[in-house]
Design brief:
Blueprint: E1 2-6, E2 22-28, E3 31-34, E4 36-39, E5 44-48, E6 55-63, E7 66-67, E8 73-77, E9 87-92, E10 113-114, E11 117-118, E12 136-143, H1 146-149, E13 159-164, E14 170-172, E15 176-177, E16 184-189, E17 194-202, E18 205-206, E19 212-216, E20 227-229, E21 235-237, E22 242-247, E23 263-268, E24 275-276, E25 278-281, E26 286-291, E27 297-305, E28 307-308, E29 314-315, E30 321-329, E31 339-341, E32 348-349, E33 353-359, E34 377-383, E35 387-393, E36 398-405, E37 409-417, E38 422-423, E39 429-434, E40 444-449, E41 453-454, E42 460-464, E43 468-474, E44 491-496, E45 501-502, E46 504-505, H2 511-518, H3 529-538, E47 542-546, E48 551-559, E49 562-563, E50 569-574, H4 588-600, H5 614-619, H6 622-655, H7 660-677, H8 679-689, H9 695-709, H10 716-724, E51 733-735, E52 738-740
Parallel strand pairs: 21-30, 32-39, 42-50
Antiparallel strand pairs: 1-5, 2-3, 2-6, 4-5, 6-7, 6-8, 9-12, 10-11, 12-16, 13-14, 13-17, 15-16, 17-18, 17-19, 20-22, 22-26, 23-24, 23-27, 25-26, 27-30, 28-29, 31-33, 33-36, 34-37, 35-36, 37-38, 37-39, 40-43, 41-42, 43-47, 44-45, 44-48, 46-47, 48-49, 48-50, 51-52
Helix pairs in contact: 4-6, 4-9
Length: 748
């Protein structure tokens, strides 16, 4: 109930502010009740209270410690609807019975009274035997103090009474208001043997004494003489409710035609606590027993005659027992409970087989044996490349999934079974295939240089002398996957030709290379971080060297002594650009003069005219001849170098289609013919020149040869053309005032 108090001062003025200490106490048939006070802050106070019993109640007010001796209000409370905590559950056994109205299993009952007082109907002064199956018991739902004050219910309470049997069946028990309207009552028939639970509630809240447990017993049965029917007594399937029937007989073998016996069933499995089965009295002397076992394997069923207590003990006069042995078979395969061992997919390399082992289990974790009705597993793999995947039955109910991929990267392995495609535990499996060990036949080596390009067909590369050449080796396994060099692998790059050169390996940061390899076709994009990190950290596979001498070189790239695919290769090294400080001056007249001296100072005593010893006579002193021989030897050495360089240039020119060799040969023949025509005059002048010695003779010869052979100084235009590298000086030709250059003129 709710009320309010308006505060006034001693002169009757209303207080407009709160903050006073207001207390309201109610006095009535049930004693004293304090009301809850709420200060509204405007001089008014809200009251809320509930009186426990009908009758006249008076309200007394106290403000700030001062109490008014006269009641401020007086009212009459009528009977209302009782709450759950005001109602109690009472059980009366017509035939005398055993009653426990609370949760304490240790409550002792003596003469119908418990330690908490008399819990039975006043008309029943003693309890003899527990109720038997099939009998009825009266149950009352009444006011908590009905036995003391006779308090009655209003009849409008929403009372519900339910019974829970030992087999797990829950049923509603109808309640009716007694004729005198003081309480509710019902008749409960116990359907089976065992402990039953009665639950009474109002608006979902349990009343006092609820739940109440009642143990129901049956008539005496001699179990060893009973007949057991049904396959459930010897076998069952894990997780399935199994049943069998017990036909009751006495100790003499006589069949009992009526029920009422107290039978209980216990199921014992190795390594587990005993569990309780259900026994239903069918009223005709037969009892339907049912149980469920979750663990596959042997088990024991124990039938006992008498009420079953805690610890598996029975009570009753007969105390007979019957043990039945059975075997529990595993249930149907539950894909979600299967045990999966995916350790065979760890550290998987390209080309190696990974195995996933699956052990079939039912929903209780029992291993399922192989059988004709066993559902197969299905697998599917997706990833960066083709995958060979299959399932192989092991014959003991297990299955193996074999996985093999040759492309390194990340894959997803899906495994399922059944028509609903139920995935196994852990599916899809994340499979990372790592690249294998580097194989020389699949490794890639690239030649890197400032001016390298292919010439003369495949396998031949031209390079410039003096520039750094680098060979970048990329590790590949036997399936072409990018991998990392092992620290123990031997890498080498060597060149043989005009000079033997061993390329030196240098360590560098390979982050860019790793990024390039990781994007190569998407095959290496999902490589394990460890492999990429190893390759980036090692920085191996980069070799460099400088080839100074022009000519053809054969370059070998080997891994562990085996040549890399596509190697060896031929590198044609051409001379670099001409340098003024390295070039030599050689006049053509001087060359002709020295050639004439060589011919005249030859060891052959016969000259071109057939006159023996005549040339020595004309030359004069022997020392001049020796000096000429020394100059000739020096000239031969210089000519040998020029011939080597000329050979390389002519080979390169032939590769580009320029007939440089034919032009050079024709020019040499023309000059030789002109020299022969002037031979006689040159020889006559040479005899006169013998009077001069040393460099004077050479200068005189140069002047005469220049005059006789038509050699002249370059004009300004020709000098500019030579400096600018016009086609006329570098292998080109002029036509119609326009300049036409050979395609490879700049390179030559």
């Amino acid at each position: 109930a709710k009320a309010s108090v308006v505060a006034h001062d001693a002169f009757g003025n209303s207080c407009l502010e709160g903050g006073d200490q207001v207390m309201v106490r109610l006095l009535g048939p049930a004693g004293v009740v304090d009301a809850d006070v709420v200060d509204y802050g405007d001089g008014t106070y809200g009251l809320s209270f509930s009186v426990p019993r009908a009758g006249v109640w008076r309200a007394h007010l106290a403000v700030n410690g001062g109490e008014n001796p006269n009641p401020v209000a007086e009212f009459v409370a009528s009977q209302g609807v009782l709450a759950a905590n005001q109602v109690a559950l009472r059980i009366v056994h017509d035939q005398g019975g055993f009653n426990k109205a609370d949760d304490d299993d240790d409550d002792a009952y003596f003469g119908g009274k418990s330690r908490r007082g008399n819990r039975n109907h006043p008309g029943n002064s003693a309890v003899s035997q527990p109720p038997r199956a099939g009998t009825e018991t009266i149950v009352h739902v009444q006011a908590l103090d009905y036995d003391v004050s006779g308090r009655e219910v209003s009849g409008a309470e929403p009372v519900c009474l339910r019974m829970l049997s030992p087999s797990g069946v829950s049923a509603n028990v109808p309640l009716r208001l007694a004729k005198d309207g003081a309480r509710f009552h019902a008749r409960v028939r116990w359907p089976e043997v065992g402990r039953h639970v009665l639950v009474a509630s109002i608006n979902g809240d349990a009343v006092v004494g609820s739940p109440s447990r009642v143990d129901v017993v049956a008539a005496d049965v001699h179990l060893p003489s009973c007949k057991v029917q049904g396959t459930g007594s010897v076998s069952c399937v894990a997780g399935e409710r199994t049943r069998f029937v017990v036909e009751a007989r006495d100790s003499r073998g006589n069949r009992l035609s009526a029920g009422g016996a107290s039978l209980s069933l216990m199921v014992q499995t190795p390594g587990s606590e005993p569990t309780r089965g259900s026994v239903l009295d069918q009223g005709d002397g037969t009892y339907a027993a049912s149980y469920a076992v979750d663990k596959a394997g042997p088990y024991v069923l124990v039938l006992s005659a008498g009420a079953m207590h805690a610890g598996g003990q029975t009570s009753g006069t007969s105390g007979s027992r019957l043990a039945l042995e059975g075997v529990c078979r595993p249930g149907a395969t539950d894909v979600t409970k299967c045990v999966v061992d995916a350790s065979g997919l760890a550290q998987l390399t390209a080309g190696t087989r990974g195995v996933v082992k699956i052990v079939r289990r039912d929903k209780f974790g029992n291993a399922v044996d192989a059988g004709p009705d066993m559902l197969p597993f299905r697998v599917e793999a997706t990833g960066v490349g083709p995958v060979a995947v299959e399932t192989v039955e092991s014959g003991d109910g297990g299955c193996e999934i074999r996985f093999e991929a040759k492309v390194a990267g990340r894959y997803a392995l899906h495994a399922w079974s059944g028509y609903k495609r139920d995935a196994v535990a852990g599916s899809p499996f994340d499979v990372v295939v790592l690249p294998g060990q580097a194989s020389a036949s699949w490794c890639v080596a690239q030649l890197v240089g400032a001016h390298t390009h292919a010439v003369g067909g495949p396998g031949v590369v031209a390079a410039v002398a003096g520039e750094t050449l680098s060979v970048r080796m990329q590790a590949r396994d036997r399936f072409g996957n990018a991998t990392a060099w092992k620290r123990w692998q031997t890498l080498s790059v060597a060149a043989s030709g005009p000079q033997d050169v061993v390329f030196k390996e240098r360590l560098e940061d390979n982050q860019s290379e790793v990024a390039m390899l990781s994007d190569n076709g998407g095959n290496v994009r999902q490589l394990a971080t460890a492999s990429i990190g190893d390759m980036a950290a090692s920085g191996r596979g980069v070799f460099s060297a400088v080839l100074h001498r022009a000519g053809a070189y054969v370059v070998w790239c080997t891994v562990g002594g085996q040549a890399v695919a596509g190697w060896p290769r031929v590198i044609q090294v051409v001379p670099n650009t001409a340098q003024a400080d390295a070039s030599e001056w050689r006049a053509e007249a001087e060359t002709m003069a020295l050639t004439s001296e060589i011919a005249s100072n030859a060891h052959d005593p016969f000259d071109r005219t057939g006159v023996v010893g005549e040339r020595d006579t004309r030359r004069g002193a022997l020392g001049e001849a020796q000096r000429a021989r020394a100059e000739a030897d020096s000239l031969r050495a210089r000519l040998a170098k020029y011939e080597e360089a000329a050979a390389v240039v002519m080979e390169a020119a032939e590769a580009t289609g320029i007939t440089l060799k034919q032009h050079a040969r024709a020019a040499a023949m023309a000059k030789e013919a002109r020299i022969r025509e002037l031979g006689q005059e040159v020889e006559v002048d040479d005899t006169v020149g013998t009077r001069a010695t040393g460099g004077a003779a050479s200068e005189a010869f140069d002047a005469r040869a220049t005059r006789q052979l038509g050699i002249r100084e370059l004009t300004a235009e020709e000098e500019n053309d030579w400096t600018a590298g016009t086609p006329r000086q570098r292998g080109g030709r002029r036509s119609g005032g326009a300049t036409t250059r050979a395609p490879d003129a700049d390179r030559l």
